[in-house]
Amino acid sequence: MSDIKQLNLTIDLCLRIGEVLISSGAGAADVTATMGSVARHLGMRNPEIDVTFTSLAMSHQYDEEEPALSMIRNVKHRDLDYGDLTAVDHLVRDILDDEADVYLARTRMATIVSVGHPTHRWLVTLAWGVMCASVAAFLGGGMVVAGIASLAAMSIDRLQLAMSRRRLPAFYQQIAGGVVATLFALGAAASEIDVDPSLVVTANIVMLLAGVGFMGAIQDALTGFYVTSGARLIEALLATAGIIAGVSGGLSLGEAIGVDVGRLEPGYSGWEATWVLVVGSALCAAAFAYASYSPMRALLPIAAVAALGAAAYRLVDEAGFGRTWGAGTAAFAIGLVSYFVAGRIRVPPLVIVVSAVVPLLPGLSIYRGLSLLAEDDARVSLGLLAMVTAAGVAIALASGVILGEYLAQPLKREARRLEDRLSGPRLVGPLRARTKR
In the predicted model, is pLDDT for residue 437 greater than 50? Predict the structure, then answer.
């Protein structure tokens, strides 16, 4: 490619595609491979691509006697928007199928990032409420607990939306969410209602953990993008620390005013009915997917995959292998199935796997650890053990999903040529790259 104008437009298009992908949680390897695939198909030979968590850079030496043309694009906003992610994924496939040239692709890209969603924002708030209600239900709470958890979740969503519009960092949003969840639990504990308010906190912890990018951090580490993995991990740890700070502050407030929220004991959570866990997990995953603007056609398949994961989790846990192995096995099954399901409904596998593992997030272990740490020194070790268990479950979920994708996707020569550093499965973007002839 020797036309400078065409070269500029191609690089700019690739950077815009990469920005949407990485801001929606795609791994750095997927972003690099997708950008390289589009650039090569549009006639660019040997582009240099550098992807980090906060910026994207791309350069091309179009003439040995001229300086290389380079562009950098900063990633300023991070929104979990699976609608835009799916639209960009379809655009990339159309480019590779010669159904869109660089000019049409740029027009479609501008439309994707500028046009809002047809879904009303209050429906998203309602979806978060349904998600937390389903979590409270499969943890053993009744209708009253589910209703309180739903109200708390919707309140958290509206509060975090207002804070994000004022550009407050996500850390403070997580603290506020943890405080609100605990205040609702304190209100339930102070009333005469015969409920377990600790389930309210646990359900809302799962909601706050849903957007944390543990999976992207693990994927980047496994595929050799250690700088981006470290940045994602720091962001995830900060978000989790915000949850811990908010919930622990609320628990301390309850202790100061003489209101005991209680401690949720593993095994007491009401999972004796497997069908409750399976149905609740399916509803939880579908509600999260809807709140993340996933295409409507993906909701039922996501619910089915989440139900499969919950059943696998229950089977392994009852066999005596523990929560961590149960979570890892369930995530492996989810990753293995999601690749084939995603191809049938035409969405990136990332949309399915992230939504399906949400019901398995370690909200129970985090709450148990916090409540134990707030007690006497004799139980601090048990609290730390619960927090370590939560970290182990999170790692097991991420690594299990990625291992399932490794085995599900065929390793073809064309996939290996996408990028020398690419060594992992594709959760976003086409598996094959084609070069324009």
Answer: no
